[in-house]
Specification:
The chain is mostly beta strands and about 575 residues long. The protein has five helices and 42 strands. The strands form nine sheets. Strands 27, 30, 31, 33, 38, 39, 40 and 42 form an eight-stranded antiparallel sheet that branches. Strands 29-28-32-41-34-35-36-37 form an eight-stranded antiparallel sheet, with no helix packed on it. Strands 12, 13, 15, 16 and 17 form a five-stranded antiparallel sheet that branches.
Length: about 575
């Protein structure tokens, strides 16, 4: 126990003299004057705030001592305090004390190797060795003895004639530790040392070029964060990472057959370009082929095959997949891949296959520009084109009789304050000189995309969107019916999810005799139509919102786009919803 200072009798006799000199000498050195009369140590008030936090590490603890947090010693002022002292009966230092030549906001106490609860006394000292009031803390750190009690469950081992796959079926992480990273090392039949590493949990890796019926030690080191059980019964991670070492003995049966193990990409991986494919070669096979297909059966007309030699790896480029991506409709496809002997002799070889997520490389390229774009921004020239030719406003004045008339079009605000739009009255439509080139062997185009940003403002039997004839003299070819479904009778109608007085981006694509419908970038339906030329756009004009007998109603339009080919679904998805500026 530390006590306050006591003075000898002779010191009391001198005390008056000391006081009389105080006015001349001030307080400087006052403790120097009386120090020789002290019989016990002095206790002063410059103590730490308290034991605010104890953090357990590997054979160490950190103890926070100041409410201000962890601040540099240069920013701490505690009066006379000059040093930080930690006492512990287990310290081997003189007097069981560790001295830090500064005042600390926290202490890091290392070298705590025993599996026990340590007790620490922490205080400051001034330049004369006087001590502050002490703080007492207890802590039981994580030690090597704790680590030796941990085990990692053994892996499943799948043997081949000269290789083995080590694979953990479940995560290594438990409540006792979190698994972060692993490395492994083994020696092959030629004395070559192989190493590898990974972050996946559960781990998996291959042991290659090894003999059967022999013990093959595989040294595995796992980087973990251990946890300790606290007083509330919860496992709490310590503040350090620790290496846990394990030896796995691999012994491949002499009866193991040849298996071409697939290494990368991992199952379900999202591939990018260039993409490395790798596998484990087997004895007796000198040439391999890599097969990639959206078909799990690797159907002949859906499979790309690449000669890949015997190196055990091949780098796939974007150009390698052009024959596949040109016909790919979706922007994201789950594909299968496998590696087989090039000579097709697979009777004595086990073939694996894996799945991977293929993102269409077209998404990495700029979208094609439209050949026609009308944005309706200028109230003085509402029909002018941003790209292409100006639209011709029309009015249906009788059955199949139409005249030029801009009177049914009013300029309004669009989907945002910076957008323009047109309000279109019933029976009004627009004739568009499209500039599309006729498709080979046809009088018009059967390869195009039309996109409309529209808002329906009143109920009707039909809202026509497109009529493909030269003079708008037959029935509509793309419309919205009274239940707000999209299509026509020849293709069927598809639920759109639309409501009135809301802006939507609606698209139709026609390519390879397939009609597809989209709302806000999502496909809602498709149909292979009858080959009667119904969706063939006439050589010069296409009619926006027209119909020959009045299946039309009022609406708002803020943008129309025309493309000279049928965009693919991933491209429509990339365009997204209504344009705002």
């Amino acid at each position: 126990m530390y006590k306050k200072i006591k003075l000898k009798n002779s010191a009391i006799a001198l005390f008056g003299t000391i006081l009389s000199l105080a006015g001349l000498a001030g307080c400087s050195g006052i403790y120097d004057n009386i120090r020789e009369y002290a019989t016990e140590e002095e206790i002063y008030s410059n103590r730490f705030d308290g034991i605010l936090k104890i953090s357990l590490g590997f054979e160490r603890v950190e103890i926070d001592l100041m409410k201000a947090g962890r601040v540099p010693a240069s920013e701490i002022y505690m009066g006379r305090a000059r040093k930080t002292v930690i006492e512990c009966e287990d310290f081997t230092e003189p007097d069981h004390r560790r001295i830090i030549d500064s005042v600390c906001s926290y202490v890091n106490i290392t070298g705590l190797t025993q599996l026990k609860t340590y007790q620490f006394t922490i205080y400051t000292e001034d330049s004369y060795g006087n001590r502050s009031m002490p703080l007492v803390a207890e802590a039981k750190p994580y030690t090597r003895s704790n680590l030796e009690g941990l085990t990692i469950v053994p892996p499943s081992i799948f043997g081949s004639s000269s290789a083995a796959l080590l694979e953990w079926k479940d995560k290594i992480t438990t409540r006792l530790f979190e698994h972060l990273h692993y490395t492994y090392k083994y020696t092959d039949m030629n004395g070559v040392v192989h190493t590898g590493e990974g972050d996946n949990d559960p781990p998996s890796f291959f042991v290659e070029n090894v003999l059967t019926d022999q013990d093959i030690p595989v040294m595995m080191t796992s980087r973990i964060i251990p946890a300790l059980l606290n007083d509330e019964g919860y496992y709490v991670p310590i503040i350090d990472t620790v290496d846990l070492q394990t030896t796995v003995i691999v012994k491949i049966s002499p009866d193991a057959g040849a298996v071409i193990f697939l290494k990368e990409p991992q199952p379900g991986a999202e591939i990018s370009f260039p993409q490395k494919f790798s596998w484990v070669p087997v004895n007796g096979v000198n040439d391999y082929v890599l097969k990639i297909s959206p078909s799990t059966t690797f159907a002949e007309n859906q499979t790309l095959t690449f000669p890949v030699g015997n190196s055990g790896e091949y780098e796939l480029t974007e150009e390698d997949l052009v024959p596949f991506t040109d016909s790919l409709e979706s922007y994201r496809v789950t594909m299968s891949w496998t590696v087989e002997p090039a000579n097709g002799d697979v009777d004595n070889v086990t073939i694996q296959q894996r799945r991977m997520n293929f993102i269409h490389p077209g998404l990495l390229q700029p979208l094609p520009a439209p050949v026609g774009l009308w944005e309706f921004e200028d109230p003085m020239m509402p029909f002018k084109a941003t790209i292409g030719k100006e639209l011709n406003p029309k009015l249906r004045t009788g059955n199949s009789i139409h005249g030029d008339d801009p009177g049914g079009f009013t300029h309004i605000a669009g989907p945002s304050a910076n957008n323009g739009a047109l309000h279109v009255l019933k029976n009004y439509w627009m004739q568009c000189e499209h500039g599309l080139r006729p498709s080979p062997g046809l009088t018009g185009s059967d390869n195009y995309t039309l996109i409309f940003d529209i808002r329906l403002v009143s109920a009707a039997n039909y809202h026509s969107l497109l009529e493909t004839s030269q003079n708008c003299n037959h029935d509509q070819d793309f419309c919205i019916n009274s239940s707000l479904s999209i299509g026509i009778g020849a293709t069927g109608y598809y639920a759109s999810g639309m409501t009135y007085n809301t802006w939507y981006r609606i698209a139709i694509t026609y390519r390879n005799k397939i009609v597809r419908y989209f709302v806000n970038g999502s496909q809602i339906g498709e149909k292979t139509p009858v080959t009667d030329g119904r969706f063939l756009i006439s050589p010069i004009y296409v009619n926006l919102f027209g119909d020959e007998d009045g299946d039309m109603n009022e609406f708002d339009v803020s943008e129309v786009r025309l493309y000279d080919h049928g965009l693919k679904p991933y491209q429509i998805a990339a365009l997204g919803g209504v344009s705002t500026k």
